[in-house]
Write a structure and sequence with these properties.
- Two copies of one chain form a homodimer.
- By secondary structure, the first copy, chain A, is α/β, with parallel strands linked by helices.
- Chain A has helices at 11-17, 65-76, 96-107, 110-126, 142-152, 195-207, 241-258; strands at 2-4, 19-21, 23-32, 35-44, 51-57, 80-83, 130-140, 159-163, 181-187, 212-217.
- The first copy, chain A, contains seven helices and ten strands.
- An eight-stranded mixed beta sheet of chain A has the order 3-4-6-5-7-8-9-10, sandwiched between helices.
- The two termini of chain A are 26 Å apart.
- Chains A and B meet through strand 1, helix 1, strand 2, helix 6 and strand 10 of A and strand 1, helix 1, strand 2, helix 6 and strand 10 of B.
Chain lengths: 260, 260
């Protein structure tokens, strides 16, 4: 026995009650040690008062238009969002060689990576609209690795989501520190995150008794959510609309569970 | 810029518009060859007219109370449901030894398994409420294996969902026949569906160029959706509320995508 409601009958009434909402965004300067970082803060003023906070962490080219758009999409879901800067103000490598070198500095220095993302988390937690008991972090590629590293640091987060992030850890024993629920969204054909790395990650999560899930998207390679990554999967990185939409939809019930 | 609606302001109006809905169910006898099968048909009369059809396939003990409850839950989502019978009327093994033997007959005879589930699909497609362009199949354990086998047979389905089903195939080349989108929901610690079997399945899907996804639920073992499976994961099969709820929630957007 179920109760059903006749929602379809009342569009006219709903229209008269609708409210125009706007995204409120600004650039935010902050520091980690002596390094100046430049993030992007955004929320939707349709929601009043405190709300869950979500950190968004960039890909290997640094915080750019893509991550700002994602931050706005997350803000549109009703969250207070900070897209962080790991590299430093003005450091936005525009070619693969420089991007790889910059990302490599942090992949090879996890304590520094943790400190940089932690500085962003501090900014988010100090924001007046952030509900301190409901905070999550998501990241793309390099940012996926980063949010996992933030979780491994023992940060007090409800959850983290990695989109096509690298899953390896130089210190897998740190998984025991993880308080966040972990959702890894993975392209099943991603040559940059091969099967052995996925298996090691699963084992790391298992050994650490983490609350984890991993979704493998068939046919998807690296960067599957990135609109500008092209469509040639043979290059190992390409946009995949199906996996992009599915992974975005998978994030929503995960957030609903974290923030309930 | 988003439009928001003031839904919270109008509960009184909604209440006056609500409709009392009921599940309409019946036992259905049908045949495959000379074998009489006994399925369970259920739909929700809150919805009018044709709707997507969903086949539900049982675990190794045959169609019982668990599968009927699942069928009702799926019917409650607005679909026309048939819980099929693979074993035959009255064949409902009530202990692991007999259940294993019965399931084994079909796992070792995939053509027969395909014929049995196909007979159920025929009953569903003949039902006046089934929208023939929108049909899916879901199955639990043995039933997960069965819906994958149905897909491998080339059945004209929008999609299939396996909940903790066995993923192996004696004829992986048949994946090229698959028209259905495939969603496999897997307990990451399921000893009955080990990592090598998952890897072989993923490779089968990849080679067959199937539209597939697999979700691995950390900490979940076999039977993770089965309320009566107990809570002792060390036995290899146990209920896991978290994975149960997450997998149910993962099915919904999959159906939404299939049936849009």
């Amino acid at each position: 026995m179920l109760m059903r409601t006749g929602l379809l009958l009342i569009p006219a009434l709903l229209a008269t009650l609708s409210v125009r909402a706007e995204l409120v965004s600004k650039t935010v300067e902050y520091k980690q040690g002596d390094t100046v970082l430049e993030g992007y803060s955004v929320y939707d003023n349709a929601t009043q008062g405190k709300r869950p906070g979500v950190l968004v962490v960039h890909q290997w080219q640094g915080l750019g238009a893509y991550e700002k758009k994602r931050a706005e999409m997350v803000a549109g879901l009703g969250y207070n969002v900070l897209a962080v800067d790991i590299y430093g103000k003005g450091i936005r490598p525009d070619n693969p060689r420089d991007a790889g070198a910059e990302a490599g500095k942090f992949k090879d220095n996890r304590p520094l990576l943790r400190a940089r993302v932690r500085a962003g988390l501090d900014v988010l937690t100090r924001h007046e609209l952030t509900d301190l008991k409901r905070i999550a972090a998501i990241g793309y590629c390099f940012g996926g690795t980063t949010v996992l590293e933030l979780a491994r640091s023992g940060a007090d987060l409800a959850g983290v989501v990695s989109f096509h992030g690298g899953l390896s850890s130089p210190t897998p024993g740190d998984a025991k520190n993880i308080k966040a629920k972990v959702l890894a969204l993975h392209g099943a054909d991603d040559p940059f995150v091969p099967a052995a790395e996925v298996a090691a990650f699963e084992d790391e999560m298992r050994q650490g008794r983490v609350d984890w899930q991993l979704i493998a998207y068939g046919g998807a390679v690296h960067s599957f959510t990135h609109w500008d990554a092209g469509s040639d999967s043979s290059r190992g990185a390409a946009y995949n609309e199906r996996a992009d939409k599915r992974s975005w939809e998978a994030m929503k019930p995960f957030f609903a569970e974290l923030f309930k």
